[in-house]
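Appendix B. Raw example, untouched.
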Amino acid sequence: MKKNIKMQTNFNIKTSSELVKKLTNSMGLGEENHIARIALAYSLVKSTYDENKNYNTADKQKEYKDNTLFGNYREYYISLISQKYKIHKDHNDIRKYLKWHIDNGLELINKYFEENKNVSGMEFLLDNVEEGIGNMTNEEGFGYTKNKNSLIKEKESFVAPIKILIGEDNGREIYFTPNNTNLYSNCHIAIAGQSGTGKSYFARNILKRIVEESKGGVNFLYLDFKGMTESDRKNKENEDFFTQTNAKLIDTPTDSFPVNPLSFINNINEKDKLVGIGRFVDIIDKYANLGKVQKQYLKDATKRAFDNRKDGTYPTLNDILENVYEIAGDKPTSLTQVLIGLTEVDLFDNSKSGDFINGNYYLSLSGDLSKDVRFTATFLVIYYLYSTFMNMDKVPIENDYSGLRYVLLIDEAHNVFKEPKSQEILEKLLREIRSQGVAVMLVSQGIEEFNQRDFDFSELCQSAFLMQIKDGNNWRSIRKFLGAGEKQQATINRSMENIKPRQAISNIREFEFGKIFSTK
């Protein structure tokens, strides 16, 4: 008896030859069939088939045969279509959906790179893989909260060369232009140097010159984990920094930071409000080590605090604490302890909604505050920044210069690197906020701290400056920090043997790789 064997259909899909070649060359991810597979997957995540959206077949077409397009994973790609559209793998529309999603994906990716010329193909791929894994493993995660109801106006970006004097070599001045997209894929900067080498002074000078070059258009927040002492305030170099940048010192716990940390939440749209409350609860949970019951108490208390505000204003952390007491009683818990720490010294000025992004601020985090309170307050501010800027339009690129709006500088950043609870938020910030015109500067005492077990933070900082460090002969770590190759090892080793305070080596494109220069 003969069995009925269904013949396998060959799809042999045609798509835009121009886009395939263009994206293959610009993304640098291998052969032309790779971009078609990426386009298919990207479109399946971002879009659903639209019969009214047809793609021009008059242009020159590239034909993919099944074995070229799918390789050994034909059934896998077909199953993705079947799952998305709830149809059998032998359905007649499979080919139609495959072709549409490849065409659509190529168009979406092309549009993305036209708007984000400073992002590499590998960064695009890693960001989307990371986002996909995050969606599978963490229902809430730390994605930004949609808030089109924000009272903060769209912040203009400075779109012109930001040419910064960073030092000199034998009387020759050295300039660095971090927003030049021909040289750098992002404006993030890593600075490492042990205490007494002048790294903080160097970082402040970079900030000062960014403000000068942008004519005050680019603002900053300087986060100082060790806190500014009385002698620091009287230091002439620090006085000059505050005078020349017109920066305001927020000396905790004496001064309040000018923002209600709950104001990143959309208090009008109910769905977005619940997502925002979830983000807030996650940040508190990170540092208070809440159990499931305490976490639910916090979520319920925060919802109630928003519901009680009938006038559209934002509740305060103190409102939430009072609701926790009403819901759970007044027995001391890790939740009440962290909320008390955040409210009893007025760390936040709840009357403000975030205008600080249009000024320059130095946040000094005093050691008088407990570690949990310092970290919770810090990351409420960082998440506010992240969410606020992610709700703005992407910055433009004009004449190969990317727009810049803001700089977040984290001094003594090894405090953050060593705290696993903080790494997820900081990694997400570095990956996503670059296209929003925000540069992150990470200043730390050494280089080992950048390279954590799960993630190397220096990889996302395009430009790195290395001063004197204790592990100056650690070639493996230095190589990662600077992105150096074996050919540069001799130069770097020689430089690290001879480097002095207020000197640095760097990987910037405007100066010799690994050669010593005097910082200015």
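End of appendix B.
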